Give the backbone structure.
Amino acid sequence: MFKTIVNLFFPKVCYGCRHLLTDNEIHICTNCRHNLPVTNYHFENNNTVEKVFYGRVKIEHATALLRFEKKGIVQQLLHNLKYRGHEVISTLLGEWLGNELKTVEVYSTIDIVIPVPLHKNKLQKRGYNQVAKFGVEIAKALNAEYIDSVLLKTTATKTQVFKKRMSRWKNPNQVFSIKNKALIKGKHILLVDDIITTGATIEACSNILNKADGIKISIATMAIA
C-alpha cells in the first residue's frame, strides 16, 4: 500500500521512453530493453570498434554495448545519465556489459579498469563522472581493480568542439595527464567511456597511458555512434 501511494505522487518512469513503469519493471521498461540496439561486438571477430582505432593507437580489444542512434533510446539513456542525475543507468549498463565480458576469454586478462576522466570543474558541477559506476561494475565482473587516480583531465573542453580542438592539438598532454604510473606498469588496462564518436578522446587517453611501461590497452564503452 505504501509503495502504491509513493508511486501515485512520485511515479516511476522509464529512462528510455518516459512511460510509466509497471511493478515488475525497474528503471527501463520491457519494451525499451527489447528494442535497445545491442552490438554484440565482443562476441564477433569483425569488430567495428577496433577498426575505429586501426592505425591510430594500439588497442588489444575493443567493444561497445549499444549503438547510438539520434533521437533513439540510447540517446535518451545517456542524456538522463549525464544531465539529469540518473547515475543508476551507469550501474545498469556496467552490470550488463560486465556479465557479458566475463564470458569472453580475451577480457579475462584485464588487470585494471580506468575511466575516461572529467575535468575537475565539470566533475564538481555534475557531482559524478558518468562512467565511474559503469567501470566499477565491469571491474567487479572481471575481478579487476578499478583505479581513477592515474588518468587526469587537465584542460577543460566543450563537448561540441572537442573533436576540432583535438585535431589542432598535436600534444595530448594539453588535455590529459598521467600520474602514479607505477600503479599500472606492466598491466592490461580496460579504458571505459560513455560513447565513441570519432575516437579522439580514447586515442588521446591511450597515448597518455602508454607513457607507463609495458602496458596493454583495451576499450569498453556504453555506446558507439
